Each structure stands twice: as structure tokens, then as C-alpha cells.
């Protein structure tokens, strides 16, 4: 029996806090679905925000969009070659392989269209991801007899998330955090001034590929939780929101991570609240994206007036 | 083939045919304005609209349902466009980032609303969900009429306003000087795009819509550069892909051996067919296809070799006879290739090969050789006198350029150095006006 | 050992300018300007020399060696417009990037580095904005910041791409003064310059370029009416058109 059954918003948060604290000390029982959801959302959010910050600043988010479509083909390739019965059973090695396949396919095909065939950039990107995604759906429908894959790919199925998914997302989060942590300075330089970076010997091409593969891997890991398309929202929205409020790269990174945690908790709690109190079952991932998006839009609309108000009240210094 | 007339299947096939024509036509315009990714975003933006439409339909029990859904989708598509503009301008965000945010946010909003719809009316929730990947299978004759009218409207608009659109796309400076309101055209374009998207999503779905905007345009672009022809070919490709795709989806859906029916979704099949056309066009389009480029590149290379052979003969013997062996020895290419070229040159009337191992130029061949050498040496003069290049380096460039000068370039070259008599290496420059 | 020597470099792409068989060298300890009309291949020359794009043939040696082996001795300052000035980073951080480049990215930033950064910023007149976001800088300040970063790299050869474009007079003066100071310290400076008139005053050696090398030497020797006519006159377009056509024919593109 799910301990969260019947709890309202604050009750849910309170209970979650208590249970997770116990869990991390080692005293609590096995994680139940709501907690898994929060953790998975949070960890997926960490990975996405960290990568997303650099993607947003480098203005290559369309690449992330493209990858979010092609990863399906990557997954299918791995599944077909390794005889795994279904998508749910992908392990870490398979995940990385699928990510590499997807990343390489995308970039090779796109570059071919742009460089050799001289087709304009936006059309090349669009054709590649549409075609590959269509192919992915067909292969999955035909060979894996899974006709729901299309919908799952978008919405994810967070209610069915397992500890296996949790571990995948966890490894991704750890991997990406390490990557960003270790290579923070070169990444900062190459995102800001690529020519200068090349001049001082930073292998910009290698970094570009690494980021692409990490993004694919993260998308695949988040496949089940939020679906790859909503993963895109995790990539783009927190950095954009944080950029509105701060000018420090470190603050953007940490703020994005923090906001993932906040929105994860709020979405799960709110979804539980709506279910318990109003008997309305809302999609948790839909809530997450809508809430974080709404906050961003609100930020855009009210930022200027909000800042003016804060300066008037003396909360903020005049310049900035 | 009976598929086309069977009442169950003709709806989907003709319906898809019409819908994809509409999408392809708008796709060309968006493609030429390099805004295809906006199309992707707007198509995602329609999803929450469709879900809301689902609520309305559920409330009114399905009265005038297709129209309601289309209308809501259309409004949200336009709304998506304004949201984009808002983010770009007020948020000062790069267009690509704005696009990504909008498309992900729209989808998320749609998913949220859909979860509520699922609780209220599973029937409508399922119908709405089918818009994600298209649901051409359930199109009826009514739909053929409805979508036919919309497609006709879009095509008619493009035809009537053709001149303005053409000018606004290809020559914006001229357009504004002639009074074409560029902003108006832009707004009309977005309007058209939204209609086409709304028409197309029932067929190929929200997610894959941009494929139907782009693939036909790529084929069209490979085939022609004129707007009218591009629109025609795009429409053709769009329509044919749709009919073929739907047909294939039907055919394979109904004929699975094990008895278990897996229905192939037509949307992805249509997109794949269209993409296949793009790939074919990329490789095989006459004049722009890769295969033709390769062919042209090879024939150019062979032509240069042939001309070099003619030059060698001229240098060795002028108007007279020289030994074929000596000529061949000067060239480093494969002997069999050189012999083949010699054979072709003699067949085409540039040289004469006598039976005793000698070779000479015909009158035409002589004139041609003189022309090439003249161009070569004039080019060298040009490089030395006008670009200050040292005389030691000019030969290599002239070897290349002598083969490619067009009549206009030749005229320009002559205007600079036409009356020179000797090249930088003191060789005389053959006179002009040779009989060619 | 010449700090900068170009050997027979040819660069040809469909979209980019053509550069054909260019060779010249630069004397150590001199301030050199590369001049030519817009689109003459000056930036292309730099990028191909530094390995950012690939030349069709030929190359450039630095102190007798290829670029990758002597990176630490060279400081490259790209054009201002290639950079995203809305990036969330402060003036001080950008300056410090120069030191990171010198030391490698994985070492701790020492107090001495920070002090050096502040000192150089002060020298360039930017100390009062060191905490500001780079988006708040003027064009001249941005260029001076780039130069600060370059100075902190402590290189022997400085390569600057159009450092005076869009810069106010005061900043231009500050920059040229700093470059002259560097010259006095024995460093070599190569500048891609867009303006003919100041070339005489600024540079010891001038390289006049328009797809090919027109002339190189002292400003008085190079900037003669005859050479200028060659560089800026109409004759070069023929060369460019012919090269483009040759390239297209080889690629099988229909003309």
C-alpha cells in the first residue's frame, strides 16, 4: 500500500522528506513509487541542466532536439543487435552504445547534407531527425511489436519507473557532473570564444562530440521517466530561467540543479494532491514541464517590473 | 489497386494525398525563408490546442468535431508563433533556444491537459492522442471534402498572390521598394503555415510534421530553382508520398502471417517515403544530383587531359607530324587511358593518327591548340604584370586556368593583356583570331 | 628563426576567399600589418596558419616549427564579432583565461595569477570595470579586454585579427601603445589591419595581400600607387572568378 495514498500537497512533501532522510541514513524501507519519481526527475534534471546550460549558451539546442528524435533509432539498433527483448531492459553499456550510435548517425547525416549537398542548415537538421525518428518508430512497431512506443517516447511513463531506471539516471547524473566539474574551465572558454579556445589547444571538436554523446545518453536514460521530448524541456528551461536572474555561470549551473529538485518535488506532490483531494489524475511529467515553463514565462514578463520594484525598495543595488 | 476506390480506404488515401499537398506547398515557402524549424515548433504548439478541442468535443458530445479540433489547433499554432516572438524579443533569447523552449513547453502543456482529458473522456483522449502520429486510417469522405477545401484555399492563395510572394522571398530589397509589404507577407506566410500544419497533422502527426514540410522542398530544390516549379514538384512529391505511404501502411497492416495484427502507423511511413525521395533526389537529380556531379567532374578531368595532349602535339611539331610515342612519354597518366583519349581525339576530328606511329593536328586541332596555348600564356602575363606574382610560379596556375576560361572571362583577360606578344618566359604568344 | 613564416599557402573553398601561393616571413621583434581589401583573404590566412581551417597546400611555421608544437609561445586574438558578448562572465574572468591558457586548465589559480590579471587590467584602463559583465562593455573596452587576456598569456608572438575595427580613438591609441611596448620587449606582433591610412604610422613591416601576395616590406616600399592599384584595383576579380570557376568544374557543379 502506497504510503502516499490520500496525502495532500504538504502532507506529501512532509512525508517524503521524512522517508527520504530515513532512507539515506539506511533505516528506511524500500522506495515507493512517488519517491522514485522525485529522485528520477531530480537526477534527470541534474544531467539535463548541466548539459543544457552549455547547449543554451552555445546556441546548439536544436542539436539536442535533433538528438532527442534520433535516440530512438539508436535504442532500436542496440535492441535489435543484442537481442534484448524490450526497451526496458537496456543496461548501462547498451545505453552508451545506443547514445554513440545515435550521436554519430545524426552528425554524420546532417554534416553530409550541409557540406556535401549544400542544403541549408535548418532543412538538413529537420530532414535527418524526422526521417530517423520515423524509421525508429517503424522498426520498433514491426520488430518489437510495440505499438505504444511513439506515445511513450513523448510522455514517458513515470508511474512505471523502476529502480533500474533510477540507477541509469543516477549513473548519467554522476557521469555528467564529473565531466562538467573536471572540464569546467575549458568548457567555459570554448563556449565563450571558440576560436581562442582552438588557438590555445583545446580540442573543440572532441568536446563537441562528447557533449553530443552525453546528451544522447542522458536522453536515453530519461526515456522512461519523462520521455525524450520532455527531456528537451529539462535541458532548455532551467538554464534560460536562471539566465534571467543571474550573470554567473556557476550560479546558472547550480540554480538549474536546484530548480530541478524544487520542481520535481512540487510536481510529484501536486500530482498526488490533485489525485487525493480532487480525484484528478494528472501527468507528473506534464506538470513538471508546464510549471517550469510557466515560471520562465512569468520571469520574462515580470522581470523588468520586478527588478524595478526591488531597486525601489532598496533590495537590489542600482546598477545591473 | 482496388484500395483507391474501396470506400474504406479511399478516404485515407485521397485525404492524405490532399493534406500532404497542402503541407508541401507551404513547406516550400518556409524552406526558402529558412524557417523550417519554426514549422516544427508550430506543429508541436498545436497539440495543447487539440487537447483543448478534445475537451470541447467531449462536452458537446462530438458535434462538429473535426472543425472544432482544427480551429483549436489553428489558434494554438498562431499562439505558438506569438509566444516565440515574445520570448525572442522580451527575453532576448537566441531564436534556436526560443524554438526549443516553445516546442517542449507546448508538448508538456499538451501532455498535462491530455492526462486530465483521459480521466474525463477516454474516448476523446484516445482520439486526440492519435494526432501525435497521425490517424489517416479513420478519414472518411467528409474529411476528403473538408481537407480538399482547405488545400484548395491554400493553393489558390499562393497562386493568386504568386508574384508578391516570389518577390518577397527572392528579392526583399526590390520588394520593399516596389511597395510589397514585407511584414504583411510574413504574417500571411505564418497564417498559411498554420493552416497547412493543421491540415497536415491529421495525416502525419504533430511530431513528424516538419518532415512533410522539408522533404518535398528538398526534392523540389534539387530539381528546379524557380518558385513555380518548386511548388509544383513539392506538391507532387508530397501527394505521391502520402498516397504511397498510406497504401503501404494498409497493405502491410492487413497481411501479417501470424494472424496477430500489427497496424503500421501511416504517418511515419509517409515521412519515410518522402525522405526516400529526398535521398534519391540528392543523389540522382539531373544536373544537381551527386551522381551527375561526379560524372561532370570526371568528364572535365578527361577533357583537360585531351587538351593537354593536343597541346603537346602542337609544341612538338606545330603543324607537322610527330611520333605518338614521344607525345605519350610526356604525360604521366596511365598508358591505356592516354591511348583511349588519342583514339577519341582522332575520332572527333582534332588529330590524325597515321598508320606509322605518327600523329598530327588537323586544321581544327591546330586552331584549338593555339587558342589554349594563347590563353595559357596570356594568363601568365596577367599574373606577373597585374598581380605581381613571380614568373616562376605562374605556370601551374595557367595549366589549370587555360581549360576553364569562359567567353566572358576570356574577354576580361584580353582587356588587360590582349596585346602582349610574349609570355614571362619569353615564349611568343600565338596570334588571335584562329579559325576554330 | 623567423617567428612567423608562410610557405606557399593556398586556400580555396567555395564560399571562402581564395588565397593563392602566398609566401612571406616576418622579422623577430617587429610590428607587422597585413593589409588588403575586404575579403582579400587576410583572416583566411590567419585561420589556415593556426590550423583552424585547412589549407589546400602549403603552411606556416612559427619559430621554425608547426603551430601545435609552439602554442604556448603564441597568443591569438580573434575578431571581436565572433564572440558571444552576452555570455555570463565577468571582465576579470576573461582576463584570467589568459593565465589558464598559459598554465593549463587543471591547476589551481594562484594569488600571483590573480594579481597579475588585476595589474594588467589596470594597465589597460579596465580595472574599474573588472567586476562587470562583458555585455556592459563598449567596443573599445571589449578589444582592450581581449588584449589584456593576450598579454597575460605571456607569449612571444602575438597575432591579432582586426583589433581596431569598430573601436573608439582612445582605445585605439591605448592598444597601439601597448603593442609598441610589446615590441620594445622584443616580442613580435602580427596584425590583420583594415585601414590603409594608419598603416604607415603603426607598422615596421607591411604585407599587402589580395588573394596573392602583392608586396611585402616597409610601408613606404609597399604602399606605392602601383602596388595599391594591384591590390585594390579591378584586376583581382578576374583571378577570383577564374579560381571559383576552376574549383566548381572540378567539383562537377553546374555553372
Structure notes:
The complex is a heterotrimer of chains A (320), B (436) and C (255). In chain A, 53% of the residues are buried. In chain A, helix 3 (61-82) packs parallel to helix 5 (121-143), helix 4 runs antiparallel to helix 5 and helix 12 (249-278) crosses helix 13 (284-312). The longest helix of chain A is centred in the last third of the chain and has 30 residues, at 249-278. Chain A has helices spanning 9-25, 33-58, 61-82, 92-116, 121-143, 149-155, 163-182, 184-192, 194-199, 204-221, 227-245, 249-278, 284-312. Helices cover 78% and strands 0% of the residues of chain A. Chain A has one domain: ABC transporter involved in vitamin B12 uptake, BtuC (Orthogonal Bundle), CATH 1.10.3470. Chain A has 13 helices and no strands. Chain B has 436 residues and is mainly α. In chain B, helix 3 packs antiparallel against helix 4 (95-120), helix 7 crosses helix 8 and helix 12 packs across helix 14 (335-347). The two termini of chain B are 59 Å apart. With 255 residues, chain C is α/β, with parallel strands linked by helices. Chain C contains 9 helices and 9 strands. In chain C, helix 5 (169-184) links the parallel strand 6 and strand 7 (188-192). Chains A and B meet through helix 3, helix 5, helix 6, helix 11 and helix 13 of A and helix 2, helix 3, helix 4, helix 9 and helix 11 of B.
Draw up the topology in text.
The complex is a heterotrimer of chains A (320), B (436) and C (255).
Chain A: H1 9-25, H2 33-58, H3 61-82, H4 92-116, H5 121-143, H6 149-155, H7 163-182, H8 184-192, H9 194-199, H10 204-221, H11 227-245, H12 249-278, H13 284-312
Chain B: H1 7-32, H2 36-59, H3 65-90, H4 95-120, H5 122-129, H6 141-160, H7 162-170, H8 172-178, H9 182-223, H10 227-254, H11 266-284, H12 290-317, E1 321-323, H13 324-329, H14 335-347, E2 351-353, E3 358-361, H15 363-387, H16 394-401, H17 407-417
Chain C: E1 4-11, E2 19-26, E3 31-35, H1 42-49, E4 57-61, E5 74-77, H2 91-103, H3 111-123, H4 139-152, E6 157-161, H5 169-184, E7 188-192, H6 199-202, E8 205-210, E9 212-217, H7 219-222, H8 225-232, H9 235-251
